[in-house]
Amino acid sequence: MPLQVEDFQEEIDRATRNYEKFVICIDKIPEDFLRSLQSLLKKAIPPMKIAGLASGTD
């Protein structure tokens, strides 16, 4: 099964909670932060697969 952003949901949830708790002076609201984080993960997964760092690859 190919690796997907959803495979990192626990880490995304943890990062979002920390963002909401500790980041107070930034232009992004938590929902924007979540979308940005998911977008970055989508971009990071292919290089991780190439480097052999991603488990769950085909």
Structural class: mainly alpha
Low-confidence stretches: none
Number of helices: 2
Assembly state here?
Answer: single chain
The helix content is 55-70%
Hey, roughly how much beta strand do the residues contain?
A: under 5%
In words, what does this structure look like?
With about 60 residues, the chain is mainly α. The chain has one domain (about 5-50). The protein has 2 helices and no strands. The relative contact order is 0.22.
Describe the structure using short key phrases:
58 residues, mainly alpha, elongated
Summed up:
This protein is an all-alpha fold and 58 residues long.
Write the layout of secondary structure elements.
Elements: H1 9-22, H2 30-51
